Amino acid sequence: MKYDIIVVGSGPGGYVAAIRAAQLGRRVALVERAEPGGVCLNWGCIPTKALLKSAQVYNYCTAAAHYGVSLVGEVKPDLAAIVARSRGVAETMSKGIGFLLKKNGIDLISGFGRLTAPGRLDVEGTQYEADHIILATGARPREMPFMPVDGKHVINSRQALALAELPQSMIVVGSGAIGSEFAWFYATLGVRVTLVEYLPRLMPLEDEEVSKTMERAFRRLRAAVLTSTTVKEVKTNAEGLCEVLIEGKKGPETLTADVVLSAVGIQSNIEGIGLEELGVAVERDKIAVDPYYRTNVPGLYAIGDIVPGPALAHVASAEGICCVEAICGLDPAPVDYATVPSCIFTQPEVASVGMTEQQAREQGIAYKTGRFPFTASGKATAAGDRDGFVKLLFDEEERLLGAHLVGASVTEMLAEPTLAKKLGASAEEIARTIHAHPTMNEGVMEAAEAALGKAIHL
Predict the structure, then answer these.
(1) What does the alpha-carbon distance between residue 33 and residue 272 come to, in Å, rounded to a whole number?
(2) Annotated catalytic residue: which of 66, 314, 435, 437?
(3) Domains recognised in the chain with CATH numbers
(4) In this predicted model, what pLDDT tens digit does every residue of 152-186 receive, in sequence order?
(5) Please, which residues have CB within 8 angstroms of residue 325's CB and are 6 or more apart in sequence?
(6) Is 437 a catalytic residue?
């Protein structure tokens, strides 16, 4: 069967690329070996946020007295019900993708796709042809040899989404978005959590001040945070406990826990799909592409987690649209990787875009900052969520270089700084844009005013 475009993988990169191609009048097929929506909708972003919402509700219940609300009886989490709700949310979203594919006339082909020649794909023994094939096969949790995942004692993020019962203790290895979110979820539900990070600070890709704020937040949850710490070995003892040999600031040490969660990154799904046979260029487990996601093989493209760049769902979607529009001759602007927003859905939340102060210093870029703490926010005070701040970085021309937010709902606030950076907005323009009162988002305006030396509330 012949198509104009075949997309392999139905995650946020793949299904978005397929729908955009269909919108542009192309005959499209989408190949998926599992559920529509890929890891993000089924075993990643969406079900994780459902778990975190349940933990947030539980948190509010335990703090009800602070808001003048009396609850009768014991409030306790029901992990089975929490997981069931999360799986239901994922299923709903996956069905929604199926509906969108049908609505746009896209053929969904179930099975594992493998390249057999330029423009040819084998799916479970059936041959398909296309003028253009887009690979969007995503990634899976990375497994380290010193920490083999057995699904019971040592688990990965997918298994962490659906534990049968709450463990008494858990060691989370890795403090990026995945590790930090699961650490917060389980610590909030009462699990004794230890968060281990190899690099010198928690959430190492974030602004240093954000990292320090989040380290304090985890310790308020009674979670232990160990930075500059290397995990040497993980094994299970006779009692069924995990023994984790670490080396940190105190030297070699052995930690024990019921469960170890490996959250040490992801690995691209590029094995067995025919890259070697076609001579597709690969560098460090990433497919080499140009700014429009063309590989070195004519008619073959790659997007998302399998190409260099941030492994984020929204980045994959942007790449998919850019790739398809280039195929269809629309001459799209390349994806702007300097303006990619990033979110971590702990409590408080973390949101950022653009340069950190450390990056600006390393690159010798002169900058100034404007900072607004949520302790000075009327909305944050009324909501009982005063932890955190907004910090904006501006260059010598007072154009936005980066934004770093930590606090309640800051992931929803990030769109404004992202757009401001994309459009080259100045501190004056941000400061003079009227923001509704009372809102958390006033913090962006206030931080810009602070950078200009015009702060009203500080």
Answers:
(1) 13
(2) 437
(3) 2-140+267-337 (3.50.50.60), 154-264 (3.50.50.60), 348-451 (3.30.390.30)
(4) 999 999 999 999 999 999 999 999 999 999 999 99
(5) 20, 24, 331, 332
(6) yes
